[in-house]
Structures are given as C-alpha cells and as structure tokens.
Amino acid sequence: MDLEINQLVSVLGKFSVGGSVSPYLLVGFSDVEIETNFPQTESFDGASFGVGIDFEVSENTSLALEAIQYADSDIATGGKGKVSAISM
After folding, report:
1. Using CA atoms, how far apart are residues 65 and 1, in angstroms rounded to an integer?
2. Where are the domains of the chain?
3. 31 and 51 in contact (C-beta within 8 Å)?
4. What angle do CA 51, 67, 3 make, to 5 degrees?
5. What are phi and psi of 15, to 5 degrees?
6. In this structure, are residues 50 and 24 in contact, taking their beta carbons and an 8 Å threshold?
7. What own/partner pairs with CB < 8 Å and gap ≥ 24 does 75-79 have?
8. Among residues 28, 33, 78, 85, which one has the fewest Cβ atoms lying within 10 Å of its Cβ?
9. Across the strands, what pairs with 63?
C-alpha cells in the first residue's frame, strides 16, 4: 500500500505558556491518495485537525511533538478511510 498526502493547508494557533514550551492547535484541509496492491487507487479529502507542543532547545532550535488527523472520510469501496499520524 502506498499513501500520499497530496495537499495539506492548515491554520496553526500557538499559545505562549511561558518558558520554552508552546502548545498549539491546528485545523485545515487535506487531500489524500491511497494506492493498494490490487491495482486500485482511492482518493479522498476532508478536514484536518491536530494538537502539538513546541519545546525550545536553544535560541535557533526547537523540537515539536504533534498528533494530527489528516482525513476521515467515506471512500468509494464503501469503507471508511482515516489517515492520522504522531510525529516528532
């Protein structure tokens, strides 16, 4: 199976809580394509949303931990498609 996120457009709202930690929320829209081993390609799009937190390591460097759901939609085969990830 091959998964491609063709587009992701989002708005991010970051909150300052003091110090070197900044949590954030994001909402947007994504376009996803899944190709299976059964020469079949499914494309779907939908709302995206997620949460994350930035950790400032130094003045020019930060790390982010993020959980995002790229799309959650009905697909042509009658099933549900859900694409989400946790990243750092």
Report:
1. 26
2. 2-87
3. no
4. 135
5. -115, 135
6. no
7. 75/34, 75/42, 75/44, 76/42, 77/40, 77/42
8. 78
9. 55
Rounded to an integer, what distance in angstroms lies between the CA atom of residue 69 and that of residue 51?
9
Give this prediction's pTM: 0.72
Which residue numbers in the chain have pLDDT < 50? none
Place of tokens 């992701």: 8
Rounded to 10 degrees, the C-alpha dihedral 29/35/36/42 comes to 50
Are the C-beta atoms of residues 50 and 69 closer than 8 Å to each other?
yes
Note the pLDDT of residue 71.
75
Find, among 47, 34, 42, the residue nearest to 75 by Cα: 42
